[in-house]
What we know:
Blueprint: H1 8-11, E1 13-14, E2 55-65, E3 70-80, E4 87-93, H2 104-107, H3 122-127, E5 138-144, E6 151-155, E7 158-167, E8 172-182, H4 186-189, E9 194-198, E10 203-208, E11 214-215, E12 218-219, E13 223-224, E14 240-249, E15 253-256, E16 259-260, H5 263-266, H6 269-278, E17 286-289, H7 291-300, E18 305-315, E19 320-323, E20 327-332, E21 341-346, H8 353-372, E22 380-385, E23 390-393, E24 396-399, H9 411-426, H10 443-460, H11 475-478, H12 498-518, H13 520-534, H14 541-552, H15 557-565, E25 572-582, E26 597-599, H16 618-625, E27 629-637, E28 645-651, E29 656-661, E30 672-679, E31 683-688, E32 703-704, H17 712-721
Parallel strand pairs: 2-14, 21-22, 22-24, 25-26
Antiparallel strand pairs: 1-30, 2-3, 3-8, 4-7, 4-11, 5-8, 6-7, 9-10, 10-19, 12-13, 14-18, 15-19, 16-18, 17-20, 20-21, 23-24, 25-27, 27-30, 28-29, 28-31, 31-32
Amino acid sequence: MSRVITIIILISIQASWAQHQTWKGKFEQLEQLLPTPNQYRASDGSPGPSYWQQQVDYKISVVLDDTKQRIRGSQHVTYHNNSPQTLKYLWVQLDQNIRQKDSDKITTTTSQINPGSKTNSKFLTYGMNLWTTDGGMHITALKDSNGNKLKFTINKTMMRIDLPVGLRPGQSVGFSMEWWYNINDRNEDYGRSGYEFFPEDGNYVYTIAQFYPRLCVYDDYQGWQNKQFLGRGEFALTFGDFDVEITVPADHLVAATGELQNEEKVLSKKQLVRLQQAKSSYDRPVVVATQEEAELREQSKLIKTKTWKFKAENVRDFAFASSRKFIWDAQAVKIGDREPLAMSFYPKEGNPLWEKESTKAVVNTLETYSKYTIDYPYPVAISVHAADIGMEYPMICFNFGRPRKDGSYDDRIKHNMIGVIIHEVGHNFFPMIVNSDERQWTWMDEGLNSFLEFRTEQERYENFPSTRGPATSIIPYMQGDIEGMRPIMTNSEQVLQLGNNAYGKPATALNILRETVMKPELFDFALKTYSERWAFKHPKPADFFRTMEDASGIDLDWFWRGWFYTNDHVDISIDNVAWYRFGAETNATEEGLENPSYFEVLSTSEDSYGEFRGRYDEDAFTAKYEQKEFYKLTFSNLGGLVMPLLLEFEFEDGSKKKIEIPAEIWRTNENSISKMFYFDKKVRAVQLDPNNETSDTNTENNNFPRKEATSNFEKFKQKVKD
Length: 722
């Protein structure tokens, strides 16, 4: 009778070492790439015991000139130095200076002659410097709290304020500024803020942001974040309190960051009653300002003005929208012990779509994001309709999605509009609350936000055609020419395909991390822990990576390294499946699933037992396994990105069995591995990643025996089409 040899070879990895393996350390830790933990940022990813951050408070007055399309403003700023350093100067962002004729945005944009370019093409606007607006912010006064002039130096989109006396730790300094700038036409230069003109009635919708000089972030990680604004890398901003007065034509409605302080002076009696009703309406929006009222205001063109007053606490920025065209609706939302108002402002050109879907999408976003992160802490969340834009600020965002001129729309228009509202409202959480550095790491807000947008779309809308998040959606990008890619961990201005790099790929990575690598329970706890730790603080990538590992108990360095630091893609191949049986014959031909190979097991020699006194019951062992069917699967990692092996075995009787193997199976050989399995039944076929969970770019090598396969991307396109 055949006897047993060490059984471990049947149930453990058999490392098929390539003769000339190229080892790239895919499972090495990230310690050498991440900053050393210190008293400010702890090794577990949480803020350290000596963590600090600055605070900047603003008291701002602005006037919107509806005749000249110009902003005039003044502000008093109080800067609180909570750092351990004495500051001799302060850095301020003048983002409107990107529209100056000699801005780095213009001079560093590559260009070439493109015959047939449209008159409004970005090639002409940026590449050829054909601005139609006299752009840039004009600083007309800068004084200290005593009225003395302060010295300042403007360096393109940055301004340095030199302090007469160093600002020591724990001290505050106040200063005042005055400025003006011309508002840009977004139809001509695609700006994040600006105005849209409606020739049919001669009115404007103003979506105003980056309108005031904003203090840069000074932190423990890099000191001043004063990189020039080139247009792509967005904003790094400091938390503070805002007291803002906005003077506009008297027939305008204004939506803004914060809570309205003087509603009784700027709203009609009917609007006040409706707004009060909205605060207790939890199942549907209440129309505060109707379309009929908006159409009457479109005709009034009042010259006299009103001043709207807003206050916002502990926010990193302020933005507003103003127009006589606005319709306004609002609905209360229960979030923990808070009841914020979800609101929408839109011109009649947005209806009937906006009155049906906008505020509903705001509600869905607040509820879903709060579940996964922290309870929404602010009093309002506003969606403003503006053509061809999606842009976010604290408590307010500007969103596209316009029906055709006859008011009709299809599912594509509706889904795109809902998706952008979810995305931009979701930015309240990342980066407005969990306040990452957008100028440096776009993925930390766009990627995390796109992932939670995907969760909201899938949980709140039936059969929503999500385009970012599904594992299959990123395949075309990852199949592309590597010369057109950059790793996710690349500064915003060097990224070549921003949508894929900073939105799509991180969203997909996080979805795979949740559904396949970590599983939802561990992932959700870790993400909520990160959100709670870094709410109203300034996290860096290492803080996210470390917290996700610390809160889950899973070593994810291989995942961050592969998905975030390389351009590798997923292409794992089932090279062969060999069928084995116990038996005296030894014909290890490995002929796949057609014929078994037999292997003989021998008795365990006495010296193999070492110091053990006990002995195997070799007859019992043989009796238990001699009727089993054994299979050796051999895999190749062709794409370079190590991933778990998700296997589905189909048996001759038609039944199936799924087995998941963690990515660590590749730790001893990053290129080729094999593993043994045994079953009571004969295997008919094996499939890798049967549910398309890993973004495998080539499904034709995922089956054994080989068969025709529809690519993951083709399946994704069909799903979107359906």
